[in-house]
Design brief:
The chain has helices spanning about 10-20, 25-35, 40-45, 50-60, 85, 90-105, 150-160, and strands spanning about 65-75, 75-80, 110-115, 140-145. The protein is α+β, with helices and mostly antiparallel strands.
């Protein structure tokens, strides 16, 4: 396993990588931007062990990127919400998303972000392609893109139809599979 710290580097990028440089941490931040807030949903969507998820969430809370908020008292249950500091990662995630869409998804993104006000798509410069408004994470909502798998489409539709726009609300029907995990494919012999 690679080290988490870069003691010989006096660099903002190295310091940021110490905090968010592993793949699970960035995917947890992605989930937070999508509105996934509860431990079980995070575990289900990412396929992480409880131990790894607990450790990563603890680090994100300790470093002020997420806050742990009680949403139920008997029994006590918590959810994880982005802080202002966590929301400052929005430009980095947009850049990573557009890089992946362009170079790894053959130009067929699984998810696109649309401006809530006019429906225009978010550009790689975080500007609405329709009206030209500069957009932040609260100004957009995710929609299935041309590369979306069927369960991604179902998950995003359910998210939009929940009372608070969150996939964490109690579902009336069984939850579709996690949005970004591929279904296991049985090999033919």
């Amino acid at each position: 396993m690679l080290p988490r710290s870069y003691p010989d580097q006096h660099c903002s990028i190295a310091a940021t990588l110490e905090l968010i440089g592993d793949r699970w941490t960035l995917l947890l931040i992605r989930e937070a931007f999508l509105g996934t807030r509860r431990f079980d949903e995070l575990q289900r969507n990412l396929g992480l062990s409880r131990t790894v998820l607990t450790e990563r969430l603890g680090r994100l809370v300790e470093n002020g990127l997420l806050e742990r908020v009680c949403y139920q008292h008997h029994p006590e249950r918590h959810e994880y919400r982005l802080t202002e500091r966590g929301r400052d990662l929005w430009p980095a995630l947009v850049a990573l998303r557009f890089f992946g869409d362009r170079h790894l998804m053959a130009g067929k993104p699984p998810v696109i972000w649309r401006h809530r006000d006019c429906g225009g798509e978010l550009s790689d410069r975080r500007v609405c392609e329709r009206c030209g408004a500069e957009l932040d994470s609260g100004d957009v909502e995710p929609w299935a893109g041309p590369g979306a798998l069927p369960h991604t489409k179902a998950w995003l539709e359910q998210r939009r139809n929940s009372p608070d726009g969150s996939p964490n609300e109690p579902a009336r029907a069984p939850l579709p599979p996690p949005p970004f995990r591929r279904e296991p494919v049985e090999e033919s012999r």
